[in-house]
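dumping this here before i forget
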Amino acid sequence: MAAAATIAALTPAVADAEPDRRTDTARIVAKKSVATHRVDLKIDSPSMHEKMPVTVLTPGGSAPRPTLYLLDGSAAGAKVSDWITKGGAQKYFAGRNVNVVLPAGGAGSFYTDWSHRDPSMGKPQWETFLTEELPPLIDSKFAGSGRNGIMGLSMGGQSAFALATRHPSLYQAIGSLSGCPPVLGPANEAYVRTTVASEGGDATNMWGAPGSRQWKAHDPARRMDALRGKKIYLASGSGAVGPADFNAKFDPSEGSRQQQIAAGSALEAGANRCSLEFAAQMRAANIDFTPGFRLIGTHRWAYWKQDLPKAWSVLAPAL
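structure:
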């Protein structure tokens, strides 16, 4: 009883679950206090036409605090963000004066509004959910100050920059870990199409044919002015194998250890090429940013967990 009372005292008040009725406004329909500073929500989203799982890490109390939105990669967890189950976010942000919002279920989606219905993906409207529906709800229920940052890894790194450049007044800080922010050009278009296909989708249903208006509209490299004055962190590894790869746990169902290390190396080498390309584009546009390029590191959580404190130290002052 004492532990439950402590959790109740430290967790911000959230409206009780409401009857199952759809409105034009996103609303919390279920909540679960998982730990002292963690609440798992189900949010009825008019744009997504489903109840979206979202975890909020919060210091509690009523004092205003900023919000950091953390996005998963292409194999995002369906019920709980990989940042919780694999990335150590809950432990890292404990005691920090920030709301951390972690949506689940974005696998292969690029956290964007899809143009056409896809047989596998449906027609998700992630951009509307993340930029229009979720922020006012988080601010009102968790004492958000209106100061926001957004960061993602891999696919989520591209999405973070795309959302920030399309909604520059909403975010003051942006980060990408092993992502590929630009989407135009043969190599980058192939990356996007392959990432969506890895989860069974067709990127043509997302943004149309490569190089079309929608692809251009979601390329941060074409919206550089929207990045001016923001705190930016851009990181990736070279793809070179390091100690963290040999010490990592591997899932036998995904191939041998050697196969998984090779795949992680190739993925990170691609992300590194693309991130360096974007870094050069930002420098050419005189956009200030903090680089976090590592000489070693593959596409693996062990490295992203190392990147998280460095990224937060860059983004936090803007919030």
